[in-house]
Amino acid sequence: MWLSGPCGSFGSDTLSSGGCWWVLESDAGTLTLAGAPALTVANTGTRTAVFKGSGNIDVTGVVQDGVAGAILRLQKEGSGTATLSAANTYTSDTNVVDGSLVITQDDVLADASTVTLASNSSLNLTHSGTDQVGALIISNNTQPDGFYTFGTGKLRVGNPPAGYADWATTHAPSGNPNDDFDGDGVSNAVEYVLGGTKDTQDMNKLPTLATSGGNLVLTFVRDQLSIDGSTTVQIQVGTNLIDWPLGSTYNVPDAAATASPGVSVIKDSPTSGKDTVILSISQAPDSQKFARLKVTAAP
After folding, report:
1. Is the distance from CB of 230 to CB of 243 less than 8 angstroms?
2. What predicted TM-score, i.e. pTM, was given to this entire model?
């Protein structure tokens, strides 16, 4: 391994830098950085720590900012793998230029930071949680706000609405949840659950109905950003289109579920940050049966 930088030093288990950047390179095997902290900075300003090389770097100690105003940024270069396995608290950005960056714990990336992934790099979140970041750039393209899965963990990008009322401030500033502010044929509350906005035509997001094997099947895709406690999502079933609900009401759970008959929820389907929701119930003994999506939200 070698360490370089305009002003850096390497101790037994702590790496500190007072310069603008330093490079830690491993060209074979695995280099482990431990300590409390493993990496930090000494002088004020934003400093960049570069993990480089075809070998692997395993950082088991905490990566953190230094004294007030001493900010740490991480950059991964080279074909090797760098693994961050501690409860890190550094507050600047994370850039993956080459190779792979593995993060084993959630809630360790700064909420306002930017994660940048080059086209020949990869990010692997081996935890099962969700980490909030300010922005995500993949192959020079800034990604829209939402959820993104990398390995078994997720990044939640941007500042999503804090409930229906917050969403409605922009997308339905007048009227109530049952109104259709943008006139696209989808009520405001339903539009929120389906991931719509005032600027999109959302009729194609509405549930579809089909029959299969003697069952009535209703299917729709829910935006996971709407799972925030501000709405109640139900599927109502009846035998006519006038009296609702005249029959059964099925609550749509937030978590993954499998039920037949009943409601199944498939997480991150058809894409990351979305849920495919399916109600499948027997058509019998009714000669006709109808179903609709019902969303209740506080105005």
Report:
1. no
2. 0.65
